[in-house]
Amino acid sequence: MANTNNDQKKGAVLVVGAGVAGMQASLDLASSGYLVHLLDKSPTIGGIMSQLDKTFPTNDCAMCIISPKLVEVGRHLNIDIHPNTEVASIEGEAGNFAVTVQTQPRYIDLAACTACGQCRQVCPATAVNEFNQALDLREATYMRYPQAIPRGFTIDREVCIGCGLCEKVCLAEAIHYDDQARQKVLEVGSVILAPGNEVFDPSRFDTYNYLNFPNVVTSLEFERILSASGPYRGHLMRPYDREEPHKIAWLQCVGSRNINACDNSYCSAVCCMYAIKEAVIAKEHAHADLDTAIFYMDMRTYGKEFEQYYNRAKEHGVRFIRSRVHSIEPAGECDLRLSYTNEKGEQKEEVFDMVVLSVGFEVGQGTIELAERLGVELNEHHFAVTDGFMPVATSRPGIYVCGTLQAPKDIPQSVMEASGAAAGTSAMLSEMRWTETRTRELPPERDVSEEPPRIGVFVCNCGINIGGIVDVPAVREYARTLPNVVHVEDNLFTCSQDTQVRMAEVIKEKGINRMVVAACTPLTHEALFRETLLEAGINKYLFDMANIRNQDSWVHMNDKQKATDKAKDLVRMSVARAGLLKELHEKKVEIKQSGLVIGGGVAGMNAALNLARQGFQAVLVEKDKELGGLARRVSHTIENLDVQTYLDRLITQVKSDDNVTVLTEAEVVGFKGYKGNFTTTVQHGPDKTEQTVEHGVAIVATGAHEYQPKEFMYGESDRVMTQLELDKLLHERTNGSDPATWSNVVMIQCVGSRNEENPNCSRICCQSAVKHALQLKELNPEMNIYILYRDMRMYGLLEDYYTEARKKGIIFSRFELDNPPVVNRNGEGVEVTFHDHVLQRPVKVPVDAVVLSAATLANETDRLATHLKVPRNAYGFFIEAHAKLRPVDFSSEGIYLCGTAHSPKLISESITQALAAASRAGTFLAGKTLSVGGAVAHVDKTHCAACLVCVMSCPYGVPRINEENVSEINEALCQGCGVCVSECPAKTIQLSHYEDDQVLENVHALLEGVM
Amino acid sequence: MSDAFEAKILAFLCNWCAYAGADLAGVSRFQYPSSLRVIRTMCSGRVDPLYVIEGLKSGYDQVAVFG
Q: A-chain residues within 8 Å CB-CB of B39?
């Protein structure tokens, strides 16, 4: 029932779409004190990222980095996952929506299903495997991919023949053929839309013959081909004959930047990078030399460290051919002939044995209909309409958007936007924090430190996954003979809810004080069994798990005896270890409910303001006299939004917010403490007044500046200027220097970018040039404007402005790094000589102005970085914890990053990132207390020689030599990796839970059976 | 019983990467000899060189560290 009381806000949020963006938004909000309903129309969460092989620019395995997030979402007490579910309708308004959702039947009860997979093994019906992009088949009873969350199977009734086999073999009785669709109403304060995009269907391009030639594949199909869990198990093969290809071509912009064969005029923003990645990874997979060629129009490697990735690919021998391929024709039995025109206008042909179509993004029809049902406005390309100064808010108040529905974008941008959308929501609902969330009530812990070990061993059959191979009763009886074991049993499914309840009873009844479970893997189930111990009043560290499924019954299926012997060994090892385990107690530490934001530009101000609106105190530190940063020098965005009016409003909001303290002419001169409890010394004001700020989190937003060119006669003639200087002239329009009076203008791109000194692309200069060129054309349509460029990087929806500029007669002419334009004095004025790539000859133009698109460089932060102990790259930009999935976190917890201090970006992108940083910070602060300790390193100072080995070896920089001249490891900061323990020459550091004797006991106990 | 020599291998696996990889090998049903025995550590850097020596001294033929 919808709540009719509109004054009452809700403390719950609905997130629609459980791809990487939806998951991030859910995690941020659930940890910030809101109950999250996470919907996905598919049977599992994970979205398109779960289908990718590797990710650029780090070449991390996509599944390896996303699966911990899947598990975190699946386990979170305050995230309710609703798979197979879509939004039917919505009523109400911001703060109080009633959303009706419809769940399609799954035919398998998730509460009962243990994901043992017996149903799939016996299923005789097959269907096209959509997860592998139809390159192979799956059963009708299936799990979308092995790591899927929720962990449970589903029956595809479209192909199910209703034979009843799965129902017969399912020992958990989870199969329900009569499952029905259900509707329910969710009452939420806000909705976040993250439904993602679809990839373009290239069958519409008849000249590419995608449907006719099996060796023409889409880029997403190629991801599955490369993937170790894909249809070919990671072996590079082409579909037609399963032979390893020797020559592969990638065709860019298929379904993007095209209004002839499709309606997608925009750039899909990710394809250049993924094509390079696929080419490089394919070369790694190939057994012989692999020739790779990418056919492209502009290589758009505009993201952080993307240009270097592109350069490395060229070094690896990936060929880059600037051309749009006209057609793909057959050559021989199954090879493919590409016909294209090169830049010189010559007709060329080349034969490849496989072609990958780099398909773009498209908003799906289902999403278009969803937006209509929700009353959310979409633009002409069907992406959500948003405001450049609040890029995560849709046209309907209370409904936010993130990920590719907002515009085409890559994973880190989606993750940032997801946190940004969470920040918007969190600020709106802050007074409802922790009102609808759940907490777990636990009995008090029994002190067992003085008791001798009394070990209970629970051996799991996992249906027949373990029991079918390993002789489980024999393992159980063997366990009974081991020292300290007081109870043994075997279970059909040790993880099932009813077994859990019974185990807690048995533990209490038999006085068990150590538990060993021999079952699947601790990576998925350790947390669950530790909770069983907590329910029984036993410290959660008194537990060990023997992996007798993933690392035994499943990998030794052909030798039951050896599998059983190994299971006994693993159980013996766990029992021996369990006997040595000690209770560990985590401490609660208060988190100071405030943040320090360093840098008062657009990013810093947005971060501070959002923190304040979330209910936290914020101290904003700005080095100049005035707030505003680099945005002070930008009059309008490319969408013609007035930056100065926005900035004035933002400054007023920041200054008038009671939760924000602004310190100007300020510098951080001291920084100490740890996450949750930092103490920073700031000198501020004309007199350098010293002030101490205590805060729980810090956000770095130190910004960037425009490079001052040394080339192209800059500084020698007042006719040569940078884009920001042109912006000023365009804004002021003073007599004598009014740009409206100019008749010839040349803009030169990549000044100080993409060269030896600074290999980075500065991302924003292409759009600055187009923006100003359009403004100049507006002032004087007769003006001749030349933009001399290397690649026009008008990514995403910016492409439309590039198209408009060409339509308005702005001339774009390309140059190579080794043949740049030349600017010379010509009497009173200047002239520019450049090589025209269409005419194939030099062109000389006398000009009124030469506008240099100068690089965006990081501000000087040497001292700050030293104080905060946070890393920067060789170009002074700060380095985030993970380029893909933690784009605004530093690896030191409690410190976050946003704006151009991270890398060059647009104002709208800086705002999104600032909101994201505030969300991550808010997530941390909202916890109020921090659990520290547990499995962390401890120094026995009696033997410490202060040799500094621990200080130097710690990957997190935690140990320090303290005032007593011994090593000190802050348990709040220690990550528990144990590197210092192994390195310490005096053996005076121990890692709790992994102490030397505990590990050595593993070595010895494991060995007995092997000998 | 085959008399062919099968090396007894002790493997230390990093919890975050290699151990997860060994689990995935199971999910994918990749078969390998049962004489490989695994100890999970929180980081491959936690493997003290002494553990390697101890493993060899105790009778393993080979010791591997994955991380």
A: 573, 999, 1002-1003, 1006
Is there a contact between A26 and A64 (Cβ–Cβ < 8 Å)?
no
Q: Identify from A229, A462, A570, A1002 which residue to disrupt to test chain B contact, counting B C-beta atoms within 10 A and taking the largest count.
A: A1002
3-state secondary structure of A16: strand
A309-322 pLDDT per residue, tens: 999 999 999 999 99
- From CA A637, how far away is CA A929, in angstroms rounded? 42
pTM given for the model: 0.89
Q: How far is residue A189's CA from residue A422's CA, in Å, rounded to a whole number? A: 12
Q: Which CATH architecture has domain A199-361?
A: 3-Layer(bba) Sandwich (3.50)
> Would the CB atoms of A982 and B49 count as touching at under 8 Å?
yes
Are B39 and A1003 an interchain contact pair (Cβ–Cβ within 8 Å)?
Answer: yes
Q: Where are the domains of chain A?
A: 9-104+181-197+363-441, 105-179, 199-361, 455-582, 594-703+859-930, 706-856, 936-991
**Gap from A171 CA to chain B (nearest CA, Å):** 20
Half-sphere exposure of A866 (CA within 13 A, CB side): 6
Architecture of the A594-703+859-930 domain: 3-Layer(bba) Sandwich (3.50)
Question: For chains A and B, what is the number of CB pairs under 8 angstroms?
Answer: 119
Q: What architecture is the A706-856 domain classified under in CATH?
A: 3-Layer(bba) Sandwich (3.50)
CB-CB neighbors (< 8 A) of A562 in chain B:
34
Which of A151, A562, A977, A981 is the best residue to mutate to test the B interface, defined by the most B CB atoms within 10 Å of its own CB?
A: A977
Rounded Cα distance, A485 and A456, in Å: 6
The stretches in chain A having pLDDT less than 70 are 1-7, 1009-1011
Interface test with B, best of A145, A550, A568, A990 (most B CBs within 10 A): A550
Q: Does domain A105-179 have CATH number 1.20.120?
A: no
Write down the architecture of domain A455-582 according to CATH.
3-Layer(aba) Sandwich (3.40)
B46 touches chain A (CB under 8 A): yes
Question: What is the ipTM, given to two decimal places?
Answer: 0.96
A239's tokens? 């579909």
Task: Retrieve residue A245's tokens.
Answer: 């290809």
Residue A551 to residue B38, Cβ atoms within 8 A: yes
Closest CA to A123 of A171, A84, A155, A158: A155
| Sequence-ordered list of residues with C-beta below 8 angstroms from that of A137, at least 6 positions apart, any chain | A126, A127, A128, A129
Task: Please state, as a whole number, how many other Cβ atoms lie within 10 Å of the Cβ of residue A212.
Answer: 11
Q: Is A555–B27 a contact, with Cβ atoms under 8 angstroms apart?
A: no
Helix residue ranges, H only, A448-496: 472-480
Tens of pLDDT along A746-798?
999 999 999 999 999 999 999 999 999 999 999 999 999 999 999 999 999 99
Contact A812, A790 (CB under 8 A): no
CATH 3.50.50.60 given to domain A9-104+181-197+363-441: yes
B31 closest CB neighbour out of A551, A558, A991: A558
Pick the CATH number of A936-991 from 3.30.70.60, 1.10.560.10, 3.40.50.720, 3.30.70.20: 3.30.70.20
Binary contact (A1007, B58; C-beta < 8 A): yes
The answer to whether A353 and A331 have CB atoms below 8 angstroms apart is no
- CA–CA separation, A494 vs A487, rounded Å? 15
Distance between B4 CA and the closest CA of chain A, angstroms: 15
